[in-house]
């Protein structure tokens, strides 16, 4: 069996230490003070890759199949038969630990679009695709059409394979086509012909192929240590040395070389503002250009560290609101009259990595409302976002509506919402900051029919007026009060026997042609909870698929 050619600085080290140890043993005259540390150095160096392999999360089945198929393939024969232009060494493959690293980077950067330059048999491509969200996509550039046919059947076996599109031909041609089509990527992985690395890199930056907050990763940037060994004559080693220096001197970016396998450079663009200052470009350097507090718009919607509560969060709209606020980074108190439901939703949030607590409270009882506010403040120190969502709906013809129904509806929908606004508002006014979001209803604007719900409609109209009044009164003290008015939401309630026949009737009244899903309302609550909506108060944000327009 031919000896394995060392492929990384560490493998070179192991190779050299092994040779030294063999020479020492053969000579028989090397003292123990030398052979013992030599053996220790060899153990450390030769154990590292094995340890990293063992301790990194195991590869998926399709990746394992891709790896085995690649390393057992006769690439020399394929080349001899003229099926590939170049002789491809199986060592080209990124492999398990590097694949897992790339997948992790994709997760961490929350990338949705990835570009790979140099796919080989697709190990890196599939690893990165595994880290992408369901609607993510990866474009892989590969010179050899043979490799596309090799990889595709295994991509097809993976649920992530459909995210990958392989573009065969010269990578530079593909880059030009992508740039002409205005494509942009969050992560670009350069792993093709080494002497073209600088050209790929410059083309990507000059044509904005990588997004402003994107990352370029470069493989083999240590090139078996040849980038820093003085006696290097190897053309690829010299190309990589030149490339690393070029990137290091490039004021457009920051870079770090991670000494994993044969080296991975991670390169990110520095802010546009400093690039403009450097090039003295004529720009209007204001918050529109830089972003408020330097944040791009999507980051301004984040709620990291904010304390929120949602009433009626045990199901339906409230549950969706609680998830949305948690996903945006807030700590969420999940409040419901039903303890089991509140606990179940709080558990869902905890499972997703949010900080959550369940609180049982009936918001029509003033002592429950105060207890809810006090327990949130004592647990998390304050309240930034109050989502007063709990409500009830009863149907009756107006001439038959009992005072009991009227009082019950108003006690929860309007009196309860007022008590929550007041108790949360007192905490917020003291700090001079807060966001109150009430759930009103499209019924505050129109009279939904044919169902009869006088007390519900009037209570929700009251919620809008409550919102407008508090919004105007508290705005100059830092507390914004807005409400969301959903149309008819598709909840299990709607499918009850009595309401089911009405659904068809409602649908003919909705320009959107469907009922609202609770997920249709989630972005609105995050927007109203975030600093991005700071200039908005007393607003009734109607989300009803156009129903109130007809
Ligand atoms: C090191 S391998 C890539 C390994 C791959 N990233 C992986 O995850 O296993 C380099 C690949 O780049 C391809 N390549 C080389 N020059 C190219 C070019 N000019 N355009 C496109 N692909 C190229 C080669 O055919 C080869 O498959």
Automatic annotation (TrEMBL):
Pathways involved: Carbohydrate metabolism; D-arabinitol metabolism; Lipid metabolism; fatty acid biosynthesis
Pfam family name, one: adh_short_C2
Top-rank lineage group of the source organism: Eukaryota
Gene Ontology terms describing biological process: carbohydrate metabolic process; fatty acid biosynthetic process; methylation
EC id: 1.1.1.250
Keywords assigned: Fatty acid biosynthesis, Fatty acid metabolism, Lipid biosynthesis, Lipid metabolism, Methyltransferase, Oxidoreductase, S-adenosyl-L-methionine, Transferase
SUPFAM superfamilies the UniProt entry points to: NAD(P)-binding Rossmann-fold domains, S-adenosyl-L-methionine-dependent methyltransferases
UniProt GO molecular function: D-arabinitol 2-dehydrogenase activity; O-methyltransferase activity
Protein family according to the UniProt entry: Belongs to the class I-like SAM-binding methyltransferase superfamily. Cation-dependent O-methyltransferase family. Belongs to the short-chain dehydrogenases/reductases (SDR) family.
Family matches, as NCBIfam families: PRK07231.1 (NF005559)
Protein name: D-arabinitol 2-dehydrogenase [ribulose-forming]
Organism of origin: Gasterosteus aculeatus aculeatus (three-spined stickleback)
Taxonomy of the source species: Eukaryota, Metazoa, Chordata, Craniata, Vertebrata
């Amino acid at each position: 069996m031919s000896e394995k050619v060392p492929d990384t600085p560490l493998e070179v080290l192991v190779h050299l230490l092994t040779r030294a140890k063999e020479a020492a043993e053969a000579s028989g005259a090397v003292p123990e003070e030398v052979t013992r540390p030599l053996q220790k150095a060899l153990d450390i160096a030769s154990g590292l890759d094995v340890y990293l392999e063992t301790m990194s999360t195991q590869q998926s089945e399709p990746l394992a199949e891709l790896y085995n198929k690649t390393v057992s393939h006769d690439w020399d024969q394929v080349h001899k038969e003229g099926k590939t232009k170049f002789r491809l060494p199986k060592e080209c493959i990124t492999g398990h630990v590097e694949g897992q690293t790339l997948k992790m980077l994709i997760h961490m950067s929350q990338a949705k679009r990835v570009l790979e330059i140099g796919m080989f048999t697709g190990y890196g491509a599939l690893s990165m695709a595994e880290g992408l969200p369901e609607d993510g996509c990866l474009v892989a550039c590969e010179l050899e059409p043979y490799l596309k046919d090799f990889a595709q059947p295994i991509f097809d076996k993976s649920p992530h394979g459909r995210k990958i599109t392989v573009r065969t031909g010269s990578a530079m041609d593909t880059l030009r086509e992508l740039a002409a089509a205005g494509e942009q990527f969050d992560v670009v992985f350069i792993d093709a012909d080494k002497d073209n690395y600088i050209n790929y890199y410059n083309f990507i930056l000059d044509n904005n192929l990588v997004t402003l907050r994107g990352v370029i990763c470069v493989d083999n940037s240590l090139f078996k240590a040849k980038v820093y060994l003085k006696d290097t004559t190897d053309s690829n080693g010299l190309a990589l040395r030149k490339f690393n220096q070029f990137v290091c001197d490039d004021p457009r970016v920051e870079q770090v070389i991670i000494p994993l396998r044969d080296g991975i450079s991670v390169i990110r663009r520095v802010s546009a503002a400093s690039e403009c200052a450097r090039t003295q470009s004529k720009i209007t350097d204001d918050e529109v250009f830089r972003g408020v507090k330097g944040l791009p718009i999507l980051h301004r919607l984040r709620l990291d560290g904010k304390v929120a509560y949602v009433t009626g969060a045990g199901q339906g709209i409230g549950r969706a609101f609680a998830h949305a606020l948690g996903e945006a980074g807030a700590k969420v108190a999940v409040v419901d009259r039903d303890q089991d439901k509140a606990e179940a939703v709080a558990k869902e949030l905890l499972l997703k990595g949010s900080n959550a607590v369940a609180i049982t409270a009936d918001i029509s009882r003033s002592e429950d409302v105060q207890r809810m506010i006090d327990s949130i403040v004592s647990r998390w120190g304050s309240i930034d976002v109050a989502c007063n969502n709990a409500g009830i709906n009863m149907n009756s013809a107006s001439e038959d509506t009992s005072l009991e129904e009227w009082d019950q509806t108003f006690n929860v929908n309007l009196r309860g919402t007022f008590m929550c606004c007041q108790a949360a508002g007192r905490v917020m006014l003291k700090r001079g900051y807060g966001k109150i979001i009430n759930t009103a209803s499209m019924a505050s604007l129109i009279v939904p029919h044919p169902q009869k719900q006088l007390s519900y409609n009037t209570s929700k109209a009251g919620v809008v007026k409550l919102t407008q009044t508090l919004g105007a009164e508290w705005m100059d003290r830092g507390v914004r009060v807005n409400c969301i008015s959903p149309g008819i939401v598709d909840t299990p309630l709607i499918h009850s026997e009595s309401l089911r026949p009405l659904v068809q009737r409602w649908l003919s009244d909705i320009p959107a042609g469907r009922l609202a899903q609770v997920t249709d309302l989630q972005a609105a609550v995050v927007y109203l909870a975030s600093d991005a909506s700071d200039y908005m108060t007393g607003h009734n944000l109607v989300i009803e698929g156009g129903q109130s327009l007809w």
